[in-house]
Amino acid sequence: MAADQTLADRLSARIEDKRGDLIELTQDLVRIPTLNPPGDNYLEICDFLARRLAASGFETQLIRGEGTPGDSDRYPRWNVVARREGVQAGQCVHFNSHIDVVEVGKGWTRDPFGAELIGGRIYGRGACDMKGGLAASIIAAEAFIQACPEYAGSIEISGTADEETGGYGGVAFLAEEGHYAHVDHVIIPEPLQKDRICLGHRGVWWAEIETHGEIAHGSMPFLGDCAVRHMGAVLREFEDKLYPHLATKRTEMPVVPEGARQSTMNINSLHGGLSEPDSDFTGFPSACVPDSARMIIDRRYLIEEPQAEVEAEVKDLLDGLAETRPNFRYDLRELWSVSPTMTDKDAPVVTSVAKAIETVTGGAPDYVVSPGTYDQKHIDRIGRLKNCIAYGPGLLELAHKPDEYIDVDDMIASAKVMALCLVDLLCPA
Fold it and tell me: Which of 5, 202, 354, 397 lies 20 to 30 A from 146 at CA?
């Protein structure tokens, strides 16, 4: 049902009263440095969330994604899933947030894990992407439970591993284990802004290209074959042919920011020759012609592009070099891939969140698509649940940047939207 104005006002007041709690919860989460790679402190943050949610009447489980990429006894892939039943049967609304954060990087003027509150903003790695959204979903659920104790159905909140490296130890593992089979609606509080509904994301194809040569003494390179020079030829083909071609491809998907409305490719890494020495080694490298060079590419593609076409564009360039460049040899290996996805605008969770945004902000929402993938891919592909969106506080442009922050007022507004969505979906008319 739609929330009447009295209930909406009560929920709004409750969430405003929880402002201090929301700030403290966000700070506590940011201060747990869950860096991925390698996957630090997953158990610590899952334990913290389990205690917090158990105090609000949730039944909690800690689930390890055993055998998934990156999982080890040193860096186990822990997830927490919490569920609170209503007083009668009904639908299940699931809030999913990833607990991992990317490397800190350079350029910070704040303590990356200090979670300082300055000028209404909480600073820190993961504050925006996406521990602020996780905190907002918890506050929203708690306020809803207090205001509407007779709700039907169930509320679930999960904190999951490894979204920043593909989500295979988190949402993908849970989906494969059937943890979303009973779920009706999924909201992922990624930072897409308080008045935006994110319907999906572009596709991704990661691949490794290796060029081959022949090792020889560096003073006599003519006796060998330099794999790095072959890789340089690959880079020239990309610059002269592939990048201009990608710039001509445009999508009807409402991708933000505007630059992501076209196909893109990032060169993620480039390695050639001897391996990087250990940090304790201070000598010079040996004089060798490199017999191998490797490049990892991160290709983001549009819903209008078949993945086979995306792969062929790269392979055709490499095959062309093999025909025209002496001794050019290569291997092309796919690392992982995900198809584009986009939920219909008239899906139940979309219409519910849209109504709540109008109530809270006074304006209609924008409908957008993310430039990069997030865990909706696994909800859709493995969990077979299309009724899934990303909605949460924060500016997408701050994700992975130095001095990342989350605005407290944005978290408050998003928490109100999430709480009203719970009213609409779980409170009988």
Answer: 354
